[in-house]
Here is the input.
Amino acid sequence: MELKEIINQLSQELGKTAANRNIISQFDELKKQVEKDEKKYKKKVIDLYTIFEIAKDLSSSLSINNLIKTIILTSVGHTLAETAVLFVLDEKSKTYFFRDGKGIKQDMSDISFDQDDELVQNIIRQAKPVFLKDIIKEKFAAVHSKSFKRLNCHLLVPIMIKTKLNGILFLGPKSGGMPFTDPNIEFLVTLGNFAAIAIENARLYEDLNRRVKDLSTLYNISKEINKSNDMDLVLDLMLDTITTGFGVKKCSIILYDELKNVFKIERNYQIEETTAKKYFSLILEKKINNPLLKNEPVLADHHKSLSGNDIFFSVPLIAGSKKVGLLNIYQFEENLPVDDEVKQIFSIIASQMAPPLVLTQFLSK
Here is the structure.
């Protein structure tokens, strides 16, 4: 028999005499309290069950896009927020970019937040949801006031794992102008923790999957290039591989003639010959280190001689101890930053391309 039923039964028995009215009144108060607590604990159980189901959904998905949709829909469904916008950290550029939203009527892709931004650092320090009204007068928040207005932001929710902020969820006001409750905040903290772990796992999976594809592509390159003894075909295969498989937008292949001690630009992709020569002269004039001297890639992404968004990323083509030439890259798709991983990948590509180039050079002579 439940406690509520026992109280009802006792109340009926005691109500038979006037002397017990005070006791009846006390039991009525107790009954009301039990009913109130029962509702509260039932809500707690439902919230815990919801969190358990969400955790299962998040942990079972390895697609960041699917995770983002789940996070946004869950936050809106549970808190009844009118809008939700999620920004996720891009590891390479160390920037939080817009990924998706609900309830918004305009594109937010032009809004971003640097990892070093004081707003981001403040969110990391607080490590809990922050109401915009509590920080908007601070200078670090005020500089983003126009962005907050477009985002319809009332509450900033960190998507955090330990001290790493994987994303920021911007929630709008609740339907009907109701305030966010303590249970809402508790739920968002838990959601943010689960979401951060899930995003981290999905990112690791995508990185691993990409590495496997890169290695498979490199293997296929090596097979195809080594089949051919034709210089033009080898050069065309090289260009096709790096532009379609590795996101190179502008580049040149430069070969070295050891007997004449001269370099010659053999192929240009999406760049004028005069511009390619101007950039290559930076090495000849020793304004930029020659990659062939130390057999390692050289990056000059802010040199005054570069135009527009161009970079100068030069990868040596060396077979054994023989200098073959250079692969010069001037732009990547989406302005991909050249980090250690990119350098390593293109060093491997160069090591696969150099030997067949030596052979075809020899045969052509």
